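Now read the record:
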Amino acid sequence: MSVIPAVSSPPSLPAQAPTQAELLDFARRTAADAELIASLPLDPEGRTWVRLDGPADSEAWLIGWPPGSGTGWHDHAGSVGAFVVASGELKENSLAAELPTDGWKTLELTEGVDRERRLPTGRGRSFGRHHVHDVLNESTEEHAISVHVYYPPLPRIRRYSRVGQVLRLEQIERPADWQ
């Protein structure tokens, strides 16, 4: 019996982290894929999602938003990201302030940190680490569909409640909760 030695391949280099612009470009190109967008099953009562392969080991999602649905306030635990609306319109409420990453349960926000964006079909945005936002489909009749991409892949999502200027950490979700 002869043994053939294993041929070792050169070690692979770690993927270069994609920039926010590259993530946004991927989301735009994916949102323009009419066949992919039409393939997403839509539920009249709850959000639906399908995981996609993103660029450079990023995590991407195609998400369907029934009328009146939203995410609630949340962040992406240190991942940078981007999203583009493929159909319909989404509203994004966000905070123009970097929050501490750990060691708190309740924060009082100062006046003037709130931002609002309306993102119709074809529009999107990128965001940096520790971005806190709430994304909504305010339509009473139409689904919205969007493409989201994150790098590094989401280690967790922190969910918050908000009453006035008080933001309270309510829950921490891990990938097993949404995959």
Q: What stands out?
A: The chain has one domain: 20-177. The mean pLDDT is 90. The radius of gyration is 19 Å. The chain has two helices and twelve strands.
